[in-house]
Design goal:
mainly alpha; two-stranded antiparallel sheet; 9 helices; 2 strands
């Protein structure tokens, strides 16, 4: 007869539970996978599947019970690690949507907004369009597979242990959050430059011919120039998005390494 002691059961539970906490936090906060349109049961099932694959390769301290105070601290630590990785990767889509907001405001489409179920808010149509393009580029360059590879590598960079995480990783995460504005400005710069020239030309036209109704002709002109600039910039958008995605993966791993440098 096979007998299982409570100590063995706690060790098996810890071997599964600690990696599951990090993986579930990443799946819930990562781009594409963390979309609100994906049912919660699918996210939990995917997290369980990934845990069964990754858990045998992860070293977990065997003498720590999951329901102890130290075990709860380690669970919170793994949740923090997963959320940090998901947040670092999601920032690229936030930067793309912010660039769409800036471009839409400059084009005069700030009022044209639709409900975004992912963020539970109304976003301009240009921001949603660029967000869809970014999602397709992310999937096209196998970003989801790279994300899973980074998840597996994170258990080596930041192993499961009762030691407190390093503060440098949290500082890097906060600094990476500031890069939203940098990447958003880079993505929207072609449209901003084209519309700036158009607005300067319209201003000169208004001064030279005051009898013209500049508000009547300005909106269709800026709208047409904005769409033309967007169409010309789209072929160059994919390489830039690829570079930003790669930078986000590298930043996520660097955050895990710095969290592991206690």
């Amino acid at each position: 007869m096979i007998s299982v002691t409570s100590t063995q059961l706690s060790a098996w539970l810890a071997l599964f539970l600690f990696p599951f906490a990090r993986i579930l936090a990443l799946v819930a906060s990562a781009p594409i996978l963390g979309n609100r349109q994906i049912p919660v049961r699918v996210k939990i099932g995917l997290s369980l599947l990934l845990t069964f694959i990754i858990a045998p390769t992860v070293a977990v301290p065997p003498d720590i019970e999951a329901d102890s105070a130290l075990g709860l601290f380690m669970l919170a630590q793994q949740l923090l690690a997963g959320l940090a990785m998901g947040f670092a990767m999601r920032l690229i889509f936030t930067a793309v949507e912010m660039s769409g907001d800036i471009a839409g405001m400059q084009m005069g489409l700030g009022f044209a907004s639709f409900y975004d179920p992912q963020n539970a808010t109304y976003t301009p149509v240009i921001a949603q369009f660029l967000g869809i393009i970014a999602a397709l580029v992310f999937l096209g360059m196998d970003g989801h597979l790279t994300m899973l590879a980074a998840l597996s590598e994170s258990f080596r960079a930041f192993p499961i242990s009762p030691a407190a995480p390093g503060a440098a990783g949290l500082h890097t995460l906060a600094a990476w959050g500031g890069s939203i504005f940098l990447y958003a400005l880079q993505l929207s710069m072609p449209l901003i430059g084209a519309l700036l020239i158009a607005n300067m030309a319209l201003g000169i036209l208004a001064r030279s011919a005051p009898q013209l109704n500049i508000f009547a002709i300005g909106f269709p002109v800026t709208l047409a120039i904005g769409f033309a600039a967007l169409a010309l910039a789209l072929p160059y958008l994919a390489p830039l998005l690829g570079n930003i995605t790669q930078a986000s993966m590298e930043t996520a791993l660097r955050i895990m390494q710095q969290l592991g440098n206690r």
